[in-house]
Amino acid sequence: MNVVPDTSVVIDGRVSATIEDGQFEGATISVPEAVVAELEAQANDGLDSGWDGLSELQRLAELADEGTIVLEYIGERPSAIERGHASEGEIDALIRDLAEELDATFLTSDIVQAEVAQAKGLDVEHVSPEVREVGTLTVEEFFDDQTMSVHLRAEAVPMAKRGELGEMRYEEIADEPLDEATIDEYAREVVDGAKEAPDGFIELSEPGMKIVQFRDYRIAIGRPPFSDGIEITAVRPIAQTDIEDYENADELKERLLERQRGVLISGAPGAGKSTFAQAVARFISNNDYAVKTMEKPRDLQVGPDITQYTELAGEMEKTADALLMVRPDYTIYDEVRKTDDFEVFADMRLAGVGMIGVVHATRPIDALQRLVGRVELGMIPQVVDTVVYIEAGEVDTVYDVRTEVKVPAGLTEEDLARPVIQVTDFETGEPDYEIYTFNRQVVTVPLNDDEDGPGSESGVDRIAKQEIEREIRSVARGYVDVDLKSQDKAVAYVEDDDISSVIGKGGGRITDIENRLGIDIDVRTHDENPSYGAGGGGGGGGGSGGAAGSQTGQLVEPEITSRHIVIPVDGSHGETVEVQAGGDYLFTATVSRGGEIQVSRGSAIADDLERAIDRKDPITVVPS
After folding, report:
1. Per-residue pLDDT reduced to its tens digit, 158-201
2. Which keywords describe this protein according to UniProt (predicted)?
């Protein structure tokens, strides 16, 4: 008796299982070279299916050595063109042709293959993959009631994050490191379990990386060359809460049920954002709202009545299109990170779907600022009207977001009225921030600056001074210092040679600046500045004196954007230069071909540079 197996039944391991059951004992098992080629290609791509199939071929060789079967390899290896069309059935056709030539029994666990082979008159034996009960994975044994995640790596001691939300500890959970063979065995057990368990699936499968959802666990498996060693990271939620467990629960519930809203749930990693999102999802679902989720990977723990969607054809935009046909009342979007995510979130919200997004943020206002530049400013309150900030598993801050046409706080001219986004503390009812366009830039102004101490500048004052300096520097060649006397009056100190340029003929130029900013500006020389020479940043710019070596370079005027501090430099393209503030060294950089230096905001260098700009220190660029 001759038996020709196809690739599917070799991968499933059902050839040897059928032989051991006695069905094909003594038969000649003719393995097509096309099957070997497919398995080899899959193994080279790092796919477990290839390795599983090669292991099955080794078991068949052992059965042949024992005399249980006769094993032979037949046919020719498929060409590169045929392998390239494997998904279109070319390899399957080659294997069926060999079975027909040998008048052999065609063995497969692929139902499509079986149907086609029967239609062609072959003797077909279709066997289903063995379904077994999946018990406890070895990885699960590393968890206890307070373990949020387990981190296993070859040649390293197993580690885990344990503790209460907001008080996690990263600690060793074993005495000895695990060897690579053990980690590999754990990884294969996870993948096999996900394939066989009804509550498991493979979320992502790429060469070097697999993400598995198995019961309550999300398990990421990294392999070379993607990682420099085999690594397993298993994460499990350690808390399941109800919305009633949180502060302001009644007000939040009323707000969510009042109408479909746009909500951002924000917080630092591990703060409990997803736990709160799950509580919200269960609450609104229990109150007769149709709820869906958009996740990659899918790891929110929600009830069976909430369908969890992931990327459709690799794009969340297509998932959104499909969901708009389903028309949920609310969609939980976990996590909103990239520009595409924010655009999808906004599109669905503007289509009338209630949206709840989970975002990373270190301050409550940061979640809202991530929309700036990604969504038209006037549309932000229509996209997001509520921001919930989670810290240490508790609701720390809730913001109400709305638009009002008014004169921004701190400005007095009525003709400066404009649309202003007011960000109001939900608990106190007091506005904390205003977001609006000022001199063609979007600014976020804090209205409560108590944390800066008595006598400190308000957010409005800082922004007003920056804008006045920017306008004056556009026409002045030397150092500029601004002293804001009140909400509508300021003094600009400039070099003697710049007075006429700044004021303009008949005062026309300074009048234009005053009209644009809505502030009266008195222009004076640095000699009239009370702080001149006192170390306050008025120590003469552009070569008019100062500390030795501190003003010998090129005086520059940095521009602060939402993401960068841009330093324009005349000449020196491609050269290495030092950036100094008030004569003190800040950092060394290379001037780009476009004649500028860019520093990403949020870095230590950018923080130092911004503080120097706030102090009005002259910023100079000196050849290195």
Report:
1. 999 998 766 778 999 999 999 999 999 999 889 888 877 888 88
2. RNA-binding
